C-alpha cells in the first residue's frame, strides 16, 4: 500500500513551489558558464596570458566537460543519490571558479615556486575541476526531473522553469558586469573588477542552490528494476532503443543551433552590421528576455507528445527564417536586428524547452537509467559543438571586410550565425516529424508557476 501511495503521489501534478524550486537548481551552473565563456578570453589576455594558451585552456575545459558528462551519468545511474551529486558539483564549481578568477595559484603555494609554468598548471587544474563539477551538477539536475514526478505536464513545466532561469542567470551576469566594468577606467583595477564580479555571481548562485535543496526531495529509484535488470546495464538497453537516437539527434541539433548562434552573435552585430558597441550587450539581452518570457508562458500549457513535436517544429522553422534574414541583412538595415532578436529568443525557448521535454518523455518512468541518457546526449553535443566552433573560428578573419552598406557580403561570421543554426534547426524539425513517442494523457499543473 505504501508503494502504491508513493507512486500515486508522484503521478500527481506538481505545485508552483515544487516547480520553482527545481527550476532554480541549475542557476549557479548557468551564471558561472555565462561568465566563464563570455569573459574568459578577455580576462586571461588582460592579465598577460598569450591567446594560444587561452585557447588551449578553453579546449581542455570543453573536452573535460564532455568526458565528465558521460562519466557522471554512469556513476549517478550506478549509485543514485541525485542531490548528493548535485552538492558535489556545486562545491567543485564554486571553489574552482572563485580560485580561477581570484588568481590563486595552488601549485605555487604547495611547491613554493611561482613561475609562469606553475601558474599555468594551476589554471589547468581549476579548469578541469570547474568543468567536472559543472557536469556533475548538470547531469544530476536534469536526471532528477523524471524521479520527482511521473506527470508529463509537470515535467515539461520543470524543464521550462529551468530554461527560464537560465535566461535570468545570463541577464544577472551581464547586468553585474555592466555596472562593475563601468565603475572604473583604471587598468590597475581590471583584476579587482573580475574578482568582484566572480564573488557576486558565486554568492547569488549559491543562494539559488539553497532554495533548490530546501524545496526538492531526493527522487526514489524504483527498486523493482533491480530484480529484472542488472545494475550498470541500463546503457546497453538505451543503445538498442531506436527512439534514443532520434531524441539524441533532436537535442544535439538544438544545442548546435543555440550554442553556435550565441558565440557568433556579438561579433556579427559589430563586425558585419556595424552596430554600436552597446548592441553587443543589448541584442543578447533582448534574446534572453524573450526566451525567459516565452519559457514562463510555456509552463501554463497542457503537454502531450504531439504538442512537444508541434512547438519544436514551430521553433525550428522560426530559426530557419532567422538564419535566412541573418544571411541577407545589409548594414543600412541593421536596425531590424533588434526585431530579429525577439524572434530568435522565442525560437530558442521553443526548441530548448521541447527538446529537453522530449528527453524526459524518452526516459519516462525508467529513472534508474535517466542519468545515462542526459549524460550521453550532453557528451555528444559538447564534443560536436567544440569541433564545429574550432573549425569555424579557425577560418575567422581578424580584419574587418569592407562591404557595400546596401548589400550583404559573405563572411565566416555571417555564415556561422545564419547558415549553420538554420540548417541544424531544419534538420531537427525533419527528425521530429518522423519521431513517434509513447501516447500520454496530459494533466494540468496543480497551480500555475507565476500566478
Seen as an oligomer or otherwise, the chain set is: single chain
Number of helices: 17
Number of strands: 0
Helix content: over 70%
Average pLDDT level = 78
Rg is 22 Å
In whole angstroms, the N-to-C terminal distance is: 35 Å
Topology pattern, helix = H, strand = E: HHHHHHHHHHHHHHHHH
Sum up the overall morphology in one term. globular
Reconstruct the topology from this structure:
Blueprint: H1 2-11, H2 16-23, H3 27-46, H4 51-79, H5 82-101, H6 106-111, H7 116-148, H8 152-181, H9 190-215, H10 224-228, H11 234-239, H12 242-272, H13 279-298, H14 305-328, H15 336-363, H16 370-394, H17 412-433
Helix pairs in contact: 2-8, 2-9, 3-4, 3-5, 3-8, 3-9, 4-7, 4-16, 5-7, 5-9, 7-16, 8-9, 8-13, 8-15, 12-13, 12-15, 12-16, 12-17, 13-15, 14-15, 14-17
Walk me through what this model shows:
- The protein has helices spanning 2-11, 16-23, 27-46, 51-79, 82-101, 106-111, 116-148, 152-181, 190-215, 224-228, 234-239, 242-272, 279-298, 305-328, 336-363, 370-394, 412-433.
- It is mainly alpha-helical.
- It starts with a helix and ends in an 18-residue tail after the last helix.
- Residues 1-6, 223-232 and 439-451 have low confidence and may be disordered.
- Belongs to the major facilitator superfamily. Phosphate:H(+) symporter (TC 2.A.1.9) family.
- Pfam families: MFS_2 (PF13347).
- This is Major facilitator super domain-containing protein 12.
- Keywords: Membrane, Transmembrane, Transmembrane helix.
Summarize the structure.
76% of the residues lie in helices and 0% in strands.
Amino acid at each position: 500500500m505504501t508503494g502504491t501511495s508513493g507512486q500515486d503521489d508522484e503521478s500527481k501534478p506538481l505545485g508552483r513551489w515544487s516547480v520553482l524550486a527545481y527550476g532554480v537548481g541549475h542557476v549557479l551552473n548557468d551564471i558561472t558558464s555565462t561568465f566563464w565563456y563570455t569573459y574568459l578570453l578577455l580576462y586571461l589576455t588582460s592579465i598577460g596570458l598569450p591567446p594560444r594558451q587561452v585557447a588551449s585552456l578553453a579546449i581542455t575545459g570543453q573536452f573535460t566537460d564532455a568526458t565528465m558528462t558521460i562519466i557522471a551519468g554512469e556513476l549517478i545511474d550506478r549509485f543514485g543519490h541525485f542531490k548528493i551529486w548535485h552538492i558535489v558539483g556545486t562545491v567543485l564549481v564554486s571553489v574552482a571558479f572563485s580560485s580561477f578568477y581570484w588568481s590563486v595559484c595552488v601549485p605555487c603555494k604547495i611547491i613554493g615556486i611561482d613561475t609562469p609554468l606553475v601558474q599555468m598548471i594551476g589554471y589547468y587544474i581549476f579548469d578541469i575541476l570547474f568543468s567536472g563539477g559543472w557536469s556533475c551538477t548538470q547531469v544530476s539536475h536534469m536526471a532528477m526531473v523524471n524521479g520527482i514526478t511521473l506527470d508529463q505536464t509537470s515535467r515539461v513545466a520543470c524543464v521550462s522553469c529551468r530554461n527560464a532561469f537560465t535566461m535570468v542567470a545570463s541577464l544577472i551576469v551581464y547586468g553585474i558586469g555592466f555596472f562593475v566594468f563601468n565603475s572604473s577606467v583604471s587598468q590597475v583595477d581590471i583584476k579587482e573588477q573580475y574578482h568582484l564580479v566572480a564573488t557576486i555571481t558565486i554568492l547569488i548562485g549559491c543562494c539559488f542552490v539553497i532554495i533548490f535543496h530546501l524545496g526538492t526531495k531526493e527522487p526514489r529509484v524504483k527498486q523493482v528494476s533491480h530484480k529484472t535488470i542488472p545494475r550498470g546495464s541500463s546503457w546497453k538497453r538505451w543503445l538498442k532503443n531506436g527512439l534514443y537516437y532520434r531524441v539524441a539527434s533532436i537535442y544535439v541539433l538544438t544545442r548546435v543551433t543555440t550554442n553556435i548562434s550565441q558565440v557568433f552573435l556579438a561579433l556579427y552585430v559589430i563586425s558585419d552590421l556595424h552596430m554600436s558597441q552597446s548592441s553587443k550587450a543589448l541584442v543578447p539581452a533582448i534574446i534572453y528576455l524573450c526566451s525567459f518570457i516565452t519559457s514562463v508562458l510555456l509552463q501554463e500549457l497542457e503537454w502531450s507528445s504531439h504538442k512537444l513535436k508541434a512547438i519544436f517544429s514551430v521553433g525550428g522553422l522560426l530559426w530557419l527564417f532567422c538564419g535566412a534574414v541573418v544571411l541577407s541583412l545589409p548594414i543600412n538595415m541593421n536596425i531590424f536586428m533588434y526585431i530579429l532578436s525577439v524572434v530568435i529568443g522565442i525560437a530558442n525557448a521553443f526548441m530548448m524547452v521541447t527538446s529537453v521535454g522530449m528527453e524526459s518523455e524518452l526516459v519516462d518512468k525508467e529513472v534508474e537509467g535517466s542519468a545515462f541518457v542526459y549524460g550521453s546526449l550532453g557528451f555528444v553535443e559538447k564534443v560536436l559543438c567544440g569541433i564545429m566552433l574550432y573549425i569555424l573560428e579557425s577560418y575567422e578573419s581578424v580584419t574587418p571586410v569592407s562591404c557595400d552598406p546596401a548589400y550583404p557580403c559573405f563572411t565566416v561570421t555571417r555564415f556561422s550565425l545564419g547558415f549553420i543554426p538554420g540548417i541544424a534547426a531544419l534538420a531537427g524539425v525533419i527528425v521530429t516529424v518522423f519521431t513517434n513517442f509513447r501516447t500520454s494523457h496530459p494533466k494540468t499543473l496543480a497551480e500555475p508557476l507565476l500566478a
